[in-house]
Amino acid sequence: MELKIGTLRAIDDAILARSKKEKNRSYMGGSILGTECDRQLWYDYRTPFKVDDPRVQRIFDLGNIIEDYVIRLLKDAGITVYDKDANGDQFGFVDEEIAGHSDGVLLGLPESKQPHLFECKSANDKNFKLFQKDGVEKTNKKYWVQVHVYMKKLNLENCLFVVMNKNTCELYLERIKLDKFVADHAITRGKEIARMETEPDRKYKNSTFYKCKFCNHREICWNEN
């Protein structure tokens, strides 16, 4: 018999209590610099999204678990993984209003002797197949921009981007070469938007556009309160 109260409720309550304790970021994270809409990026910086759904928090938690597992797989394969710096923190950077934390740095890939930025993501079967078909650049612009910014700020020329299929546990791996133009444009744009006192223009002209429908700031952006 499925439990719909009691234990499940206790689990959900504990997840939300933990989520509420997490502090809001005081910076514009490198992971959101590839957001296409200037106004959405401005809202993401000014009013960060707070998880209030236990299911969504579990999705985020599962991503962290998968990342730890992929790191273990890389180490088992004989690849050196630096997932912490000398202070025991994630490799990261701070550049005025912008900051970011990477998943790590790799050494000893069979394909290259050069150090590689390591970024790990997970995806459902539909999106995983898009990565296989079209690669990172076409499939997810935010991820594409993120890895270039991290490479630039961490003085790396290469990235190993890993995606695990949450449905089948297949792995997609792609090596990405630094494009300094992509990184510099994203950093400059991010700083300019972070410094704006009022909302920039929307990218899209209709609140029924599918990307607006899934935006966390739709109500305040379109005054739909």
Structure description:
This protein is an alpha/beta fold and 225 residues long. The protein has a single domain (7-221), classed as Lambda Exonuclease, Chain A. Helices cover 44% and strands 18% of the residues. The protein contains 8 helices and 8 strands; from the N terminus they run αβααβββββααββααα. It has helices spanning 7-21, 38-46, 54-76, 125-139, 141-153, 180-194, 210-213, 218-221; strands at 28-29, 80-82, 92-95, 98-101, 104-107, 116-123, 158-165, 171-177. The protein has a 5-stranded mixed beta sheet with strand order 2-5-6-7-8, sandwiched between helices. Strands 1-4-3 form a 3-stranded mixed beta sheet. It is globular, with a radius of gyration of 19 Å.
State the strand order across the main sheet.
2-5-6-7-8
Fraction of residues in H or I helices: 40-55%
> Which regions are unreliable across 5 or more consecutive residues at pLDDT < 50?
none
Q: What structural class do helix, strand and pairing data support?
A: alpha/beta
Strand content: 15-25%
General shape: globular
Number of helices: 8
How many structural units, i.e. domains? Answer: 1
Order of helices and strands: HEHHEEEEEHHEEHHH
Radius of gyration: 19 Å
Task: Say how many strands there are.
Answer: 8
Which CATH-level-2 architecture?
Alpha-Beta Complex
CATH fold description: Lambda Exonuclease, Chain A
The rounded distance between the terminal residues' Cα atoms is 40 Å
Arithmetic mean of pLDDT: 91
The profile of the biggest β sheet is: 5 strands, mixed
